[in-house]
């Protein structure tokens, strides 16, 4: 018997950085940019651009950060430390999830889905911090970007 996988990102149960349950389904009708983040990475300054992107496109896009410690232990802190760091250093107001794993045996089900779902760009495991997954207004993955693609780059914003 064939059992279908998730139809969209809306099917995943998530927890916010404050430990509260949330669903990406609350953003139906908007695009969602999912980003795996880290506080001690060369790409960490992208938090500033992610916030600016969230502000510029707030009527049609939601940025959601997913802190992860999968790469060179660049996100070692607890959720409360991560939240404080993001707010203090980058003025982050966009939603953050609790710390997750984005690869390996303990990969978050959401990131397993995101890395295996076909899209026009590429599939496969997350290679580093600040990879970006663009979700359409119906919860479907439509584009994926590697870490060097900055949030405000035309390569990304042309889809917004």
TrEMBL record:
Which InterPro entries does the UniProt entry name for this protein?
Glutathione_peroxidase, GPX_AS, Thioredoxin-like_sf, Thioredoxin_domain
Query: Which PROSITE patterns is this protein grouped with?
Result: GLUTATHIONE_PEROXID_1, GLUTATHIONE_PEROXID_3, THIOREDOXIN_2
Oxidoreductase recorded as keyword: yes
UniProt keywords (A-Z) are: Oxidoreductase, Peroxidase
| Alphabetized GO MF terms | peroxidase activity
Cross-referenced SUPFAM superfamilies: Thioredoxin-like
The record places domain Thioredoxin at 3-160
What's the protein name? Glutathione peroxidase
Q: Which organism is it from?
A: Mucilaginibacter frigoritolerans
């Amino acid at each position: 018997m064939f059992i279908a996988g998730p139809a969209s990102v809306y099917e995943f149960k998530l927890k916010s950085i404050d430990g509260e349950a949330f669903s990406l389904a609350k953003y139906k009708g908007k695009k969602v940019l999912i980003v795996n983040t880290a506080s001690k990475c060369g790409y960490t300054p992208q938090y500033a651009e992610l916030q600016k992107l969230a502000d510029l496109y707030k009527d049609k896009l939601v940025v959601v950060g997913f802190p992860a410690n999968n790469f060179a232990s660049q996100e070692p802190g607890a959720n409360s430390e991560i939240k404080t760091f993001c707010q203090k250093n980058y003025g982050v107001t966009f939603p953050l999830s609790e710390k997750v794993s984005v690869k390996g045996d303990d990969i978050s089900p959401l990131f397993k889905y995101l890395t295996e779902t076909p899209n026009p760009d590429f599939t496969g495991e997350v290679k580093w911090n600040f990879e970006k997954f663009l979700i359409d207004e119906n919860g479907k993955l439509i584009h994926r970007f590697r870490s060097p693609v900055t949030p405000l780059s035309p390569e990304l914003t042309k889809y917004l």
